[in-house]
């Protein structure tokens, strides 16, 4: 991951302004510690902090077309850049960077090329010939991007809120799958897949089609010129990522460059469910496994840093971000700069335990659509920012555009949890990789019950957070929370505690408005809480709040 900061239409274009932009860009240096770049053109500035993954020697940014009239700053990876270069043979490339194709595609196609990109990306592009500019974000918001407005009429874009929160009067999270055009004066959606309308699909389930699509998604993400690995929790999703990467690594350029033994990483409290399961998967696959431990106190001590980097006060996100943040620091210390991770599967396949209570296939499918559309506010934000805090890039194969389209086009009747037919959550995915002849994983791992990351690292982690929050927040503080925090009022002491930390770093109303709210149980949307009357009495984002479903569920609270 890299960090980008771009400002257009500054009244002040003095050296002092340039120095200010350099200062603000440094707030993103954790995202890209390998190089800093800045291009200015009259009242326009594009700053970049680079994490070098592909072409480390010559791919510094900003990047340009042949005559440097087109300038682009990119955060992300373009996996099909070689195929795109083949369509741009009349163009002269300056680097081997996968992101340089963006400047040349703009020359060829104007603003109508975004859907040609296969990858995760946020970018800002300046056309110096007429001072027009565009900004765009990938399909589901794997990479973060914010947009802001200054009192002087300037428009700002940044990978993280912290680089524009002081200087912008208002700022928002840039919508995934959208492009901003200065010529057209607003946002428009470039990503328009069939599932976005939430109409119910009817394509029959084909386990081989699904398997091949996922294998393709994993293999394309092995594009790297630096050491890498897989985040392995021992659950279904990360185990499948590791199994597929391990199976095909030797045949890739990355495998030839860095060796065919895959590195895997896991974090948890000693004795946690994830550590045990991850070790078993690693032994089965024969990976070079790295197991990291943390204590509840170490996690609590890191909370302020986590909230500063992840830029949220959402309870679920902070619970899961903290162990990921601690693990990423350990991973970076080993010289690893890129990891594959399993985010997105639960949203696509209805893997969260509350999906057991989906009343019919229509509501099941519509809830998966809502969950994917909100990923940029939750799991994508967590996976990106908690790793980027230490200069590590997380890639997510389940959120491959082609894979999402195939998986979301399956008749949702196949995804429904039907115990009488032996179908637990994510059965279609488990079944796709249930190969007796050439097994990917042991059966009991393939059919392990869903554990949310914040639960799987050790149940005492969440319990410890709640105990700590209870010692910091009094009953009267929570009683008066609606007066102190009228927007997204915290309803628990844990939520109140995180909110107080967030507000110390991000003072403006615009900052708190970037964080979603509303009731949730076991990571559901507010709409899905209606599926079970008992859930409204037990609103907690932990998987253990799925009463009657999770094997270690909380006890039902008295009314």
Automatic annotation (TrEMBL):
BP GO terms, sorted: asparagine biosynthetic process; response to stress
CDD domains: Asn_synthase_B_C (cd01991), AsnB (cd00712)
Enzyme Commission (EC) number: 6.3.5.4
Catalytic activity line of the entry: L-aspartate + L-glutamine + ATP + H2O = L-asparagine + L-glutamate + AMP + diphosphate + H(+)
GO molecular function, a single term: ATP binding
Residues under site feature: Important for beta-aspartyl-AMP intermediate formation: 343
UniProt keyword terms in alphabetical order: Amino-acid biosynthesis, Asparagine biosynthesis, ATP-binding, Glutamine amidotransferase, Ligase, Nucleotide-binding
Pfam families: Asn_synthase (PF00733), GATase_7 (PF13537)
Signal peptide from the UniProt entry: none
Protein name, UniProt field: Asparagine synthetase [glutamine-hydrolyzing]
Organism: Capsicum baccatum
């Amino acid at each position: 991951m890299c960090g980008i900061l771009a400002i257009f239409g500054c009244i002040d274009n003095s050296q002092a302004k340039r120095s200010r932009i350099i200062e603000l860009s440094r707030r993103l240096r954790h995202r890209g510690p390998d190089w800093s770049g800045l291009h200015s053109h009259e009242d326009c500035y594009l700053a970049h902090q680079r994490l070098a993954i592909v072409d480390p020697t010559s791919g510094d940014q900003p990047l340009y077309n042949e005559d440097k009239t087109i300038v682009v700053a990119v955060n992300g990876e373009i996996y099909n850049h070689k195929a795109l270069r083949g369509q741009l043979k009349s163009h002269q490339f300056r680097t081997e960077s996968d992101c340089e194709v963006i400047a040349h595609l703009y020359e060829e196609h104007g603003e109508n090329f975004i859907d040609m990109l296969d990858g995760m990306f946020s970018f800002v592009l300046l056309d110096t010939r007429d001072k027009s500019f565009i900004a765009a974000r990938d399909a589901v918001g794997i990479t973060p991007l914010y947009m802001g407005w200054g009192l002087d009429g300037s428009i700002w874009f940044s990978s993280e809120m912290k680089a524009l929160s002081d200087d912008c009067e208002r700022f928002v999270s840039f919508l995934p799958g959208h492009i901003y055009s200065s010529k057209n004066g607003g946002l428009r959606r470039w990503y328009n897949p069939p599932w976005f309308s939430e109409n119910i699909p009817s394509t029959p389930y084909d386990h081989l089609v699904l398997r091949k699509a996922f294998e393709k998604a994993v293999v394309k993400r092995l594009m790297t010129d630096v050491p890498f690995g897989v985040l392995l929790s021992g659950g279904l999703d990360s185990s499948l990522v590791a199994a597929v990467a391990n199976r095909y690594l030797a045949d890739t350029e990355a495998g030839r460059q860095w060796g065919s033994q895959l590195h895997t990483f896991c974090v948890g409290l000693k004795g946690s469910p994830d550590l045990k399961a991850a070790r078993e998967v690693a032994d089965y696959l024969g990976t070079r496994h790295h197991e990291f431990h943390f204590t509840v106190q170490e996690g609590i001590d890191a909370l302020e840093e986590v909230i500063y980097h992840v830029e949220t006060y959402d309870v679920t996100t902070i619970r899961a971000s903290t162990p990921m943040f601690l693990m990423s620091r350990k991973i970076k210390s080993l010289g690893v700069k890129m990891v594959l991770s399993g985010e997105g599967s639960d949203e696509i396949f209805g893997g969260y335990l509350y999906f057991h209570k989906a009343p019919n296939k229509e509501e099941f499918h519509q809830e998966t659509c809502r969950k994917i559309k909100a990923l940029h506010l939750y799991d994508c934000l967590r996976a990106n920012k908690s790793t980027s805090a230490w200069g590590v890039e997380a890639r997510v194969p389940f959120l491959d555009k082609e894979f999402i389209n195939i998986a979301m086009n399956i008749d949702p009747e196949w995804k429904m949890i039907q115990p009488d037919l032996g179908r637990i959550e994510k059965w279609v995915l488990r079944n796709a990789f249930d190969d007796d002849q050439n097994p990917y994983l042991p059966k009991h791992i393939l059919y392990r019950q869903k554990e949310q990351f914040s639960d799987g690292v050790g149940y005492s982690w969440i319990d410890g957070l709640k105990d700590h929050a209870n010692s910091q927040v009094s009953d009267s503080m929570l009683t008066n929370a609606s007066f102190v925090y009228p927007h997204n009022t915290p309803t628990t002491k844990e939520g109140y505690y995180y909110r107080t930390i967030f507000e110390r770093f991000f003072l403006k109303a615009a900052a708190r408005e970037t964080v979603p709210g509303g009731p949730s149980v076991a990571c559901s949307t507010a709409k899905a809480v209606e599926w079970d009357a008992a859930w409204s009495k037990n609103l907690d984002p932990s998987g253990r709040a799925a009463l009657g479903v999770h094997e270690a569920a909380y006890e039902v609270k008295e009314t």
